[in-house]
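My current task is to audit a protein record that another person submitted. Thanks in advance; the entry in question is below:
***
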Amino acid sequence: MKNKFVRIGAVLLALTLLSGACGSDDEGGIDGELTFALINGVLTGRESVCAFSGAKHAVEQAGHKWVESSSVYNLDDELGLINAAITQGVDVIFIWGAFPQSGRRGVSLAKNAGIPIYLFFNEVPLVTEDILGSSLYDFRGSGANVGVWIAENRPNGVILELTGSPGSGTAEAISQGIVDGIAGSNAVVKQRENANWSADDSASLAATLLPTNPDVNLVITHNDTMALAVQRVIDDLGLTGSVEVLTESVSSPAGLQAVEDGVIPMPNAVDPLAQYGENAANHALALLAGETDERFRLMGPNFVDPKNPGTFCYGE
């Protein structure tokens, strides 16, 4: 797609919004076609791709353009993508960032360049005055949803939790939510191990820990590729039926099928990811147009039927 320099009007609008002047007496609206830089800093699976499919849909439907770039949980690479977007002269940056550190530095870079930046999914603390707005996922609430299901359906669960990589706050929020959800039941998280969002790491940990912890009857993972890898280990160890696997999120076709088939017994683990991305991009557009002064939104957990995922992913 053709790159273009930042329009003076868009920059002035961004500065007005960032100074807290949303909803002023100006007529608002977006003058001309904008180019959105869609930056995916968490490209490890289908989940983020589906979310960005919704953002692309909203941008296109509004008559604007997008350029896309991605990195895989790498602070320097993510900052490089932000610098590249600034150099290209995009009008808006829409980012799902991996780390608070890169997020804060990225916000600073965008602010200094006069480009409005919108944060999606993951929180970046201490930047609220310098961003266009945000739509952040309630990871603690999503973890709590898993915990509540356990409290209601497996109240005596002895849990091995295999987590995503700590450091960004996401894995920590999920873990705390699980603890919140099982409170008041007899369920307990016996052991928690970092599996780096990785199916291979999850399988290795499960193969090591399940034989030495025969009282464990539930394994919770932080994504479905991890869960499916653990299920294969459970089958190989002859523990099928005595150990179940649950997951905080489902994003792969195999994960969707596993929920539908009951292999992953928790039936409400599928977020409408494309809808989240579409809603967030529309929120950014409304802020740019001065149509709303609600700058911060919280998403999820809000589940869809895995047999009819609808707005789970566009372009399939």
About this structure: Residues 8-131+273-299 form a domain with the Rossmann fold fold (CATH 3.40.50.2300).
